[in-house]
Amino acid sequence: MSSDERRHGPARRDVLRAGAVAGLTAAGMAAAAAPVHAAPGSEGAGRPRIEFGGSHAREALLGGAYRAALDNLLDINTVPYDPAEYNQTGLMTDPPGVFIRAGGGYEQPWTRDASVNSWNAASLLSPDVARNTLWSVCRRQDDGTLVVQQDNQWWDQIVWAIAARNHYLTTGDRQFVTDAHQAALNTLRLNRDRHFNEEYGLFEGPAFMQDGIAGYPSPPYDPANGSSFVLDHPDTDTMMCLSTNCLYHAAHLACADMADVVGDSSVAGELRGAAARLRTAIDSHLWRPEADSYGYFIHGSGERVGQLETYQEGNGLAFAVLCGVASRARTHALLRTTHRQPRGVVNVYPHFSGFDDERPGRHNVIVWPMTVGMWGHAAAVGGRVDLFGQAVLDIATLQRPDGRFWEIYNARTGAVDGGWQNERQWESEEDQTWSATGYLRLIHQGLFGMRFERGGLRFTPSLPAGWGPVTLRDLSYRDMTLDITLTGSGNRAVSTRVDGRRADTVPAGLRGRHHVRIQLA
């Protein structure tokens, strides 16, 4: 059984469990006010609260989705673990004795899910649990040194380095960053030795989270091959994909920053040089000037060796911005040209042969909220407040009316839909963690523009017109509690005050409660 099959299990006839969800019509706003799903005990203290002051309907929709996302992460998917299986580094702790699983249908954290959920939200909201989750997918090598667990999905290992750096910047945990530097650097070096194409200057392997063969055209998809796992199809191990290489670029920089912290300046310099060369290779081989965007992947072997597939990869385009690959001009261009389906930006567009609107591919023209979260954050970073606001609404309206964050949705109707792969329809699992943390990412890092730095917390908000004032209360950050209010609209801060005084950052060393007020224009 392939990895993709292990994750998803056999298809059931009840795969479509929900109809189309409401948009921002009057009926949709009414539906948004319905009670949301919550786990027992989810009303506990100590979690942040968001308030949209301008509209009851917007408060019900966007605020309700925020509360449901917190329930998903902090209650439903924070679960006990078996130390014998998961604490192979000896670095997990009890308390808290729990970690974050991938979702209601997936009892394991999974390397990419553990990393993405920590990066998206958990390192801020639940730092001790996020630390456990990150270490749960690491192991010790024969010499005792740390490494991300080695499996046959090597391309999804390196995002761990980015999440680890983010965890340090968010928490300031010096012991963690010392160990994380070792694990991330060892993983990067192993993958460079095994999967780096010297001719192109790019890393080989499938695309981020695209472990199912429905995420690729034919070739490399072989219709005669009944396996859903990408590596069971010919020449898939040598593809050079946009998302994966953008993540490697950010991982080099993350490892360099961690090397600086632990005092290894020579390694930091080498890593930054490698990152610069990788960025040049991505721009040289994957940028499509005629389309003002990047292509999906280059065939590394087989009948189409050297050919660039020109499909739009949602995660790849988001990572080109978030991982520092795309220049400002190229960021503006790709944000302008990226296609959005009626219910959000999809994994890969357009449909591959054999798929269509009635039978969308599981990793093709279909909406994964995690992808929408990455895309929306990229839009905020790129200055497109309008596209950012649309992404927030896309996830919030998909999440309704049952209050759960499902794994995958139909890109045209918004119905819960696992998509098609190997001539059968698959399930969409309920309570998918990274669907919820993708929304939390949009709120914290997009709307409020939180930027975690060694010295403290900086803000670059993106507030769509008519959404303000909006306040995030009772946010725990290091040894303090923050109340943050945005007024006005846009992404240009004309005034930032901390406790009534002008300030660029919230210094990391503060304690107690503090009030941040940002006026935008």
Give a verbal description of the structure.
With 521 residues, this protein is an alpha+beta fold. It contains 15 helices and 24 strands. The strands form nine sheets. Strands 1-19-20-24-21-22 form a six-stranded mixed sheet. It is globular and about 65 Å long. Residues 1-45 have low confidence and may be disordered.
Rounded mean pLDDT score: 92
Q: Roughly how many Å apart are the termini?
A: 55 Å
Based on CA atoms alone, the radius of gyration comes out at 22 Å
Q: What is the strand content?
A: 15-25%
Instruction: Give the tally of β-strands.
Output: 24
- pLDDT under 50 segments (min length 5)? 1-45
- Secondary structural class: alpha+beta
Treating each run of at least 4 consecutive H or I residues as one helix, how many helices?
15
Largest sheet: 6 strands, mixed
In spatial order, strands of the major sheet run 1-19-20-24-21-22
Relative helix content: 25-40%
Based on Cα principal axes, name the global outline.
globular
InterPro entries: 6-hairpin_glycosidase_sf, 6hp_glycosidase-like_sf, MGH1-like_GH, TAT_signal
Pfam family, one: MGH1-like_GH
Domain Mannosylglycerate hydrolase MGH1-like glycoside hydrolase: 106-435
Protein name: Mannosylglycerate hydrolase MGH1-like glycoside hydrolase domain-containing protein
